[in-house]
Design goal:
Length: about 425
């Protein structure tokens, strides 16, 4: 269903939802531990549901409650044949492929949307070297794998998704051999590797990190059951941080400013643009008067680029956001989509192969935009509506369920004015 959002400032306090990245990792680690763990502060986004279902498919006992999980990994890997539906979750897919092969197994991976277009060549190369059987179709997720992963030396380029490295980091400690992951080029999305290493340590797994060039993983390790509370998600907080920088009065609660999340970079970027994060008794708030253009390296924080680009569209001067080609293989081509949306709303943006250039304007006009069935585009467009002169009409709003099911509820709680509508009327 399409929604029409009337321009209106946001005001109030919002509890930032739990980190999807951390929740994925905690669920997996708890599922690989023999014993019972409790994971609290869970939000059942579609991506998290996918990872829960994936681990259940491998035999893990997971009990779901309103906002927490009880996980018993005693029975994990007892099923040696299963089907895993990753839906549209790239994290679930890339984490689960090596995990599913810890023991001899025959696994069928399926998914939805653009997930089948996301490359898996890194794993296919490993399969070829290790004699693991696999069969797949182009441009659709329909992957069969059969065999057992072995430890050893793995050479992985640093400019591919960090999810490949994280997937191996989950699986390799359970091998009979020691392993080394050699990263053969500068590592992008380093923060996500930090999150994986942090979570592994929480569950008793040791990895030796040689300056992100080599990761040494001893074999014969055992995950240890552990209770964990999921911290707030900086990729979601970024929407409200940008909203604050654009003049909205939003206080964020439950933020961990010592977090390893790479998307915490949103704070540094906005502060370089002349915004300031202030601490209040109830939480944190981003404020600004006149935003200034800057140069942004998006390689370590691709998920926040659409909403950061919105801030750039309303800053003084010309901003260049570089090293963002990876945005093209998200739920949509986010590089192209972000440029299109900014221009449709009355901004001035230019798409390059691996970058975008944004010339700031004083105010956006509004109008019709597409969500591209992409949760981060829809949420960026909602925040944009607060600084537009006219209503913003978004063609589809349910896609936020992928990562932030309560977004629209929170948006309206803060004063957002929206109504369902039919396109063309």
């Amino acid at each position: 269903m399409a929604v029409s959002i009337t321009p209106h400032s946001l005001k109030g306090q919002v509890c930032v939802p739990p980190s999807k990245s951390m929740a994925h990792r905690a669920i997996i680690c708890a599922s690989l531990a023999r014993g019972r763990s409790t994971i609290t502060n869970i939000e059942y986004s579609q991506d998290i549901k996918a990872t829960i279902a994936a681990m259940k498919a491998l035999g893990t006992m997971i009990f779901e409650y309103d906002d927490y999980l009880e996980i018993d990994g005693t029975t994990t890997f007892l099923k040696n044949q299963c089907e895993i539906n990753c839906f549209e979750s790239g994290s679930t897919l890339r984490f689960m492929v090596p995990i599913s092969l810890v023991c001899e197994a025959n696994v069928h991976f399926i998914g939805e949307g653009r997930l089948g277009k996301r490359p898996l060549d890194v794993y296919y190369d490993i399969f070829e070297k290790q004699g693991i059987s696999y069969l797949y179709r182009e441009n659709v997720l329909d992957l069969y794998v059969r065999g057992r992963l072995r430890g050893g030396v793995f050479e992985i380029p640093g400019n591919v998704s960090s999810q490949f490295i994280s997937g191996l980091l989950f699986a390799l400690p359970l091998m009979d051999e020691d392993s080394i992951i050699k990263i053969t080029s500068p590592l992008e999305s380093k923060g996500y590797i930090d999150l994986t290493l942090q979570m592994l340590n929480q569950y008793g797994i040791q990895v030796i990190n040689h300056d992100y060039q080599e990761l040494i993983i001893p074999g014969f390790q055992h995950y240890v059951a552990h209770d964990y509370r999921v911290e707030a998600d900086f990729s979601q907080a970024a929407f409200y941080l940008v909203a604050g920088a654009l003049g909205n009065d939003v206080v964020l609660t439950d933020l961990n400013l010592d977090s390893f999340q790479g998307d915490k970079e949103a704070i540094d970027i906005l502060e370089r643009m002349n915004a300031h994060l202030i601490t209040k008794e109830t939480g944190h708030q981003m404020i600004a008067s006149d935003l200034k253009a800057t140069i942004i390296d998006g390689s370590q924080c691709p998920d926040i680029i659409p909403v950061i680009a919105l801030a750039c569209a309303l800053s003084q001067g010309t901003t260049r956001i570089e090293h963002i080609a990876r945005l093209r293989i998200k739920e949509c081509d986010r590089l192209k989509a972000t440029v299109e949306v900014i221009n449709q709303l009355g901004g001035h943006a230019q798409e390059l192969e691996d970058a975008m250039v944004i010339e700031g304007v004083e105010r956006l006009k509004g109008g019709y935009v597409s969500s591209y069935n992409d949760h981060r585009m829809a949420m960026m467009e909602a925040i944009a509506s607060t600084v537009c002169e006219e209503a913003v009409v978004i063609d589809e709003e349910k896609c936020v369920k992928k990562s932030y099911p309560s977004f629209w509820q929170h948006f309206q709680m803060l004063g957002g004015l929206m109504n369902e509508c039919e396109l063309g009327k």
